[in-house]
Amino acid sequence: MSRIVGFRLDPYALPLKTPWRTAAGTVRLRHGWLVRVEDEDGGVGLGDQPALLPDQEQGGLETRLRHQGDALLGRSLGEALDWPDLCFGIETALLDLEAQRQGVPLRRLLSPTAEDRVKVNAVAPLDGIVAMAEQGFGIVKVKVGLAPWPAEVAALRRLNLPPGVMLRLDANRAWSRIEAEGFLAAIVDLPIESLEEPLREADITGLASLQSTTPIALAIDESLDQIGVDSLLIDPPVRRLVLKPALLGGLRRTLSVAASARAVGYDIVVTTYIESAIGVAAVANLAAALDPEARMAHGLATSALFVSDVAEPLPIASGVLTLPASPGLGLSLKVSN
User: Which residues form the Mandelate racemase/muconate lactonizing enzyme C-terminal domain (predicted)?
Assistant: First the structure.
């Protein structure tokens, strides 16, 4: 098998159209690193390693990436893919190379049953929900917990949504138990698909108790690391897990966790970590592999948040993302850094 002869890491800084609020802080400029791996046959694989939010200086992560990339030089592609604890961006680049070598899209390297299209949710502020619904998105994600919850309930009730459109709400751990209960009781008759991270103090017991009070699916996202995957698989406290490959340890690790979680009853949504078009393409290929039936809308429509990007984003129309048929990721960079 061909050996790795080149490794390159190029930092990027992508401006956001509007500031993006996360559980870790507000982001205006998204940082990360483009990963390029080259084999002795001239093949080039691409990956994206986004900085940890809230996007502060990540010297430690960059050092880890460089050490790991240098350690793979001279090794076969198979040996490199077996390297323990590969960073997301490096694993993606290696898988891109391997998929190109086999002549298949990355998604079919991950699963032979992967499809070419993935359902996605839109992302919008409260005053932009209707516009996204009118563009054909069946699921629109909106942040809540930014104002007193009664005011947000009133705003949600004022919406005039097209029939069949559902809202995916994300509270980013904004509320106490009492506030979360009040909010959930007040929206139970609205078209709510799920509510992510309602509790400020997230633990298995508290989440399970809150889920028992509502028919709305609760979801765990950023609390996954705090609670731990193994604990969540023993006795699911909520109905859904939101998985970010950039944080979970890569595409293959996420695929494994998703399979285990589904086996105990979870619904699975995969989402980006607000990375470049290269990272979005990697996560989209994963979504196509783990959800060929398109049962869920995944969090992949984040390229629209950027003023500019490192590659042409994958096309999305009426809530469906279409993946390229070419081998590997199927994307190329706009410019060579």
Answer: 122-217
Distance of alpha carbon 60 from the chain centroid: 22
Number of domain units in the chain? 2
**Which is catalytic among the residues 119, 141, 244, 334?**
244
How much is the pTM?
0.95
Mark whether 38 and 130 lie in a shared domain. Answer: no
Active site (annotated) includes residue 244: yes
52 phi, psi to nearest 5 deg: -70, 135
- How big is the chain by its Cα radius of gyration, in Å? 20
pLDDT in tens, 222-278: 999 999 999 999 999 999 999 999 999 999 999 999 999 999 999 999 999 999 999
Cβ contacts of 168 within 8 Å, gap of 6 or more: 121, 139, 140, 141, 142, 193, 194, 196, 297
Question: In the prediction, which pLDDT does 56 show?
Answer: 66
pLDDT at 337: 45
Rounded Cα–Cα distance for residues 156 and 167 (Å): 9
The domain of 58 spans 4-104
Q: Which of 119, 141, 143, 334 is catalytic?
A: 143
Structure confidence by residue, pLDDT tens digits, 125-181: 989 999 999 999 999 999 999 999 999 999 999 999 999 999 999 999 999 999 999
143 among known catalytic residues: yes
127/157 same-domain check: yes
Q: Where among 79, 104, 129 does a domain terminate?
A: 104
Residues 77 and 145 in one domain: no
Region at 270 (left for phi over 0; alpha for psi -120 to 50; beta for the rest):
beta
